Amino acid sequence: MAQQIFAYILHKNGVADDSALELVAAAKKIDAGAKVTAIVTGTGAPLDALCKEMAASYSSVWKIDNAAVAYPNAEVIRKILVKLIPKGSILLCPHNTFGMDLAPGLSIKLDASFVSDVVAIEGIDGSNLKVIRQEFSGQVSTHILCDISNGAVVNTRPGSFKADESKSAGGAVTDKSSEAGDLSAKRRYLELVEAQVGDVDITKSDILVSVGRGIGEKDNIPVAEELAKAMGGDVSCSRPIVDAKWLDKSRQVGTSGKTVKPKVYMALGISGSFQHLGGLKGSPFIVAVNKNVKAPIFQVANVGVVEDMIEFMPVLTEKISESK
Amino acid sequence: MEILVCVKRVPDTAENEIKINSDGTDIERDDLVYSVNEWDNYAVEEAIQIRDRVGGAVTVATIGDKDSEEILRREMAMGADKGILISDDAFEGSDGKGISKILAAEVKKGKYDLILTGAQADDGAGQIGGMLAAILDLPYASIVNKIETVDSKKIKVGREVEGGNQEMNEIEMPCVLSIQTGINEPRYVGIRGIRKVASIEIPVHKAKDLGVDAASVGAAGAKVKRVDYFVPPAGKGADIIEGSAEEKADKLIELLKAKGGIK
Ligand SMILES: Cc1cc2nc3c(=O)[nH]c(=O)nc-3n(C[C@H](O)[C@H](O)[C@H](O)COP(=O)(O)OP(=O)(O)OC[C@H]3O[C@@H](n4cnc5c(N)ncnc54)[C@H](O)[C@@H]3O)c2cc1C
Ligand SMILES: Cc1cc2nc3c(=O)[nH]c(=O)nc-3n(C[C@H](O)[C@H](O)[C@H](O)COP(=O)(O)OP(=O)(O)OC[C@H]3O[C@@H](n4cnc5c(N)ncnc54)[C@H](O)[C@@H]3O)c2cc1C
Questions:
Q1: What ipTM was estimated for this complex?
Q2: Which candidate, A225, A245, B115, B192, has a CA 20 to 30 Å from the CA of A85?
Q3: Domain for residue A197, yes or no?
Q4: Is A127 helix (H, G, I), strand (E, B) or coil?
Q5: Ligand with smallest separation from the Cα of A292
Q6: Across-strand partners of B154?
Q7: Which residues does a 6 A CB cutoff place in the pocket of ligand 1?
Q8: CB under 8 Å to A199, separation ≥6 — which residues?
Q9: pLDDT tens, residue by residue, B204-236
Q10: Which atom number of ligand 1 is nearest to the Cα of residue A237?
């Protein structure tokens, strides 16, 4: 393949994001023999250390050291990438809050195609890259052909590609700092405000009774609380429940909420979006209760119950109490 | 402040089971219930609140067919001042870039300080806001869950990042923001509210009104093409417990006890 492949490495003070090695795997799906270049921006010693680490996994590492990108402001990093990346290249990026900020606009500036939230790459098909995406909250999948003759920006879903740990690239680090160009931007990073802690710490719970939009109304929350009490667990939830202010933000499971690692996770009326499942770690025993047998949550659950949760919760609570 | 909010009509996936048509080219759209994209309601609510604080006007715009007019009316019933339906056969089959080009042309016809989109829509791409900003050469912030007006030249915005942390930024206007759910509590719209705006004229803008080259958008201009829809072969999947609700509960309790799910 004639096109060069790049990967943008996201990190926090030199500690690589999980996506760093997932992108190696994704690049190999595009072209098994590809020599992939990692682009790493940041500043100081942590950046140097990370570049060295990445050279084990990437054939080439481009380092951009500048105080202006000590915090990854996508508006600045986009400018750097437009300057550095040759026209017609393919750039891989994680589809997380940074990638969503950076990539769509970058594809415009590079005049390249854009395909986001890619869950699988099938390979090159003529002048196209064939990938798989999901739509309608994961209820259906689609094959997408993305014309790469002018290059492409490809955002991959976190966790969809198994990290390539082979570390056999033996790459070299090149300092590209002087080529970064003008780094002024009309958006200035101010500070990071940490999420508030709530009344319970669901990250420490062994048993979680987690409710989603299927709960229907606020008045049903106590019914879930009863169930959690009977099981000896805590109530957690998906995002719409927090948006509706029915439960506190500290109870939200997912990428923009808490990462939990219970022994048992009971998901009631939750469809199973990747942002929700992204907050579930440590392979718990997952029970899904959903009235739609096709809900994506049944793909990841160990056990499924197809029922209306409003009717099922009290039955379960009562039977548990009886069985004690 | 002059604010434009981009809104999209989408099938309501919480209420619908999505089925694929017989040849796999599309989903079965006939029986679907449509509504405005969840994220867009929050964007419109935010725009209305800003207008009520500092003055100005809120315009809602959508690219779609005749059926999309209903969502414009819904958002006008919420309190948006104007609606624009952007509609042309030439727009059909546009990819994200096509949609963004068309919206950019609409933005250029007005004089907006703030352009809002949802953080994502039914395709889950989350692409339009960022593309629109880049085409217009305006600053952009995605997944915004807080907006503070500062002065006539800049605002402060919070971006919701991983773990629910909030990244505060200062951004110059005009700018484009993609709005995250939870930023506010969108007001309820009743039938009466919609009836009130039923007779307001909604202008329709076509490709030639916007000076959009029809060949650069629509299916002809699309570089990203959907080949088919499919349901992935079921993986291991969950063991589905059968029986009456009571029987299911009994079986589930046994399993839960074995896995430490009942203390
Ligand atoms: C940047 C970003 C970050 C995000 N972060 C998170 C996050 O951290 N956590 C999170 O959860 N989401 C997050 N989301 C939102 C995510 O994309 C989904 O919108 C959300 O997870 C959907 O929640 P849900 O499953 O409760 O609702 P839906 O997807 O609407 O699913 C509801 C489910 O309930 C079922 N149901 C309905 N009624 C009943 C009933 N009576 N009985 C049984 N089942 C019923 C339906 O069949 C459906 O499967 C994020 C989105 C973005 C863009
Ligand atoms: C029949 C059909 C055929 C299609 N064919 C293709 C194709 O061949 N290739 C392809 O890539 N895509 C195709 N699409 C998808 C279409 O191009 C998408 O609508 C487009 O990509 C933008 O939606 P999104 O969900 O990706 O937006 P996102 O970027 O996820 O949405 C974010 C925000 O952008 C704004 N927005 C999105 N769409 C609109 C709109 N129409 N009007 C106003 N504001 C909007 C809203 O504020 C929304 O909240 C097709 C769609 C249909 C229905």
A1: 0.95
A2: B115
A3: no
A4: coil
A5: 1
A6: B172
A7: A 97, 137, 212-214, 216, 238-240, 252-257, 269-271, 273, 275-276, 279, 290-292, 295, 308-310; B 14, 119-120, 143
A8: A248, A250
A9: 999 999 999 999 999 999 999 999 999 877 667
A10: 11
